[in-house]
Specification:
By secondary structure, the chain is an alpha/beta fold. The chain has 13 helices and 13 strands. It is 32% helix and 14% strand. Helix 5 crosses helix 6.
Length: 328
């Protein structure tokens, strides 16, 4: 579930960045739905918002930071009334300490992105303030909150991991997580589009390229639908949506099986979006009942049986969850 600036008229005009208000959230995530999350035998068309390895609601900030959403605290308070677990991942650099103290409710876990110490953290987390995050995390922990130190390793901060781990323990973080996912290199640009620095070992003189030029080239690369190494004859899908019985609700209220497919077809340019856009039907839960918004998911699973991506397999499913079957 991801939130940013929802405004009804903006959705209709195709403006991509939006935010669910408390009222929007309550419209989609009703008390009945929340009650299903804490009942032993859930059932909404056989699918329930079970996210990753816990049962509850995960605010991951796919398209924007949870803490910057206007009604973020009120939404968590609403969910908390029903004792549904909440997990939040955030930069933690906005709001004041009183706000973070109020967020420290039972069943709420907050992962603070802290990629190193004060001298390295900002190299990836642009425009965030390490000292302020630490103050916010300390306030949250002092109020009884369950905090997680989430550390993305880069060449510039690997040497600080053990210090961060020790600091996390000293400050009362419940745990320290190294969340390396392979994405640790790339050029960094300022807000004004000026080249700033490179993360990792630069393989070219990136300062020669403008931000707009690189963005256009990235979008064009995505539009070409690069081959997936997983696009093999004997493929099997380890579908996290099915395994975890999760659904993903984006910041504009649109519903997808998982965050990998959560996109705004008109604005975000991921491989396979054109094909996926043709499968999506009536999926905005602000306009249609949630159960209706799930019905197009079947077309994704049907497309799995196609012979290849070129023949209609969803690229993102192949790339993210496809594996060559071992015993064929
Ligand atoms: S990308 Fe496709 S296969 Fe993977 S979790 Fe999402 S729907 Fe399932």
């Amino acid at each position: 579930m991801c939130m940013r600036n929802y405004r009804g008229s903006d959705y209709n005009s195709g403006y991509p960045l939006c935010e669910l208000t408390l009222q929007n959230f309550k419209h989609i995530v009703t008390p009945d739905l929340l009650m299903q999350l804490i009942r032993p035998d859930p059932a909404v068309n056989g699918r329930t918002p079970v996210v990753w390895d816990f049962r509850g609601i995960n605010f991951n900030g796919n398209l924007g930071d949870f803490a910057s959403a206007k009604d973020a605290l009120e939404i968590v308070q609403y969910v908390n009334q029903y004792h549904v677990p909440v997990a939040i991942n955030t930069n933690g650099s906005v709001r004041n300490t009183a706000w973070w103290q109020a967020l420290a409710m039972p069943g709420v876990t907050v992962g603070f992105a802290l990629d190193g110490l004060a001298d390295t953290h900002h190299l990836y987390r642009q425009d965030t303030d390490w000292h302020r995050i630490i103050e916010n995390a300390k306030a949250f922990i002092a109020a009884g909150g369950q905090a997680v130190w989430r550390f993305v390793p880069f060449d510039h901060n690997r040497h600080q991991e053990s210090t961060c781990k020790q600091m996390a323990a000293d400050l009362g973080f419940a745990r320290f997580e190294n969340i390396y996912d392979g994405r640790d290199t790339g050029p960094v640009f300022s807000r004004s589009g000026q080249y700033s620095h490179y993360l990792g070992k630069a393989n070219a003189d990136w300062s020669k390229h403008s931000y707009q030029e690189l963005l256009t080239s990235h979008i064009n690369w995505h539009r070409k639908i690069p081959d997936s190494v997983n696009d093999v004859d004997h493929i099997e899908y380890h579908c996290l949506h099915k395994k975890n019985r999760e659904i993903y609700i984006a910041a504009d209220g649109s519903v997808y099986p998982c965050c990998f497919l959560g996109f705004y077809p008109g604005q975000m340019n991921h491989p396979g979006n054109t094909e996926l856009a043709q499968m999506v039907r009536e999926n905005n839960a602000l306009h249609y009942p949630l159960e209706q918004c799930l019905q197009w998911f079947d077309s994704i699973e049907s497309a799995w049986s196609k012979a290849s991506v070129a023949q209609g397999r969803p690229w993102q499913c192949v790339q993210t969850c496809g594996r060559a079957r071992v015993n064929v």
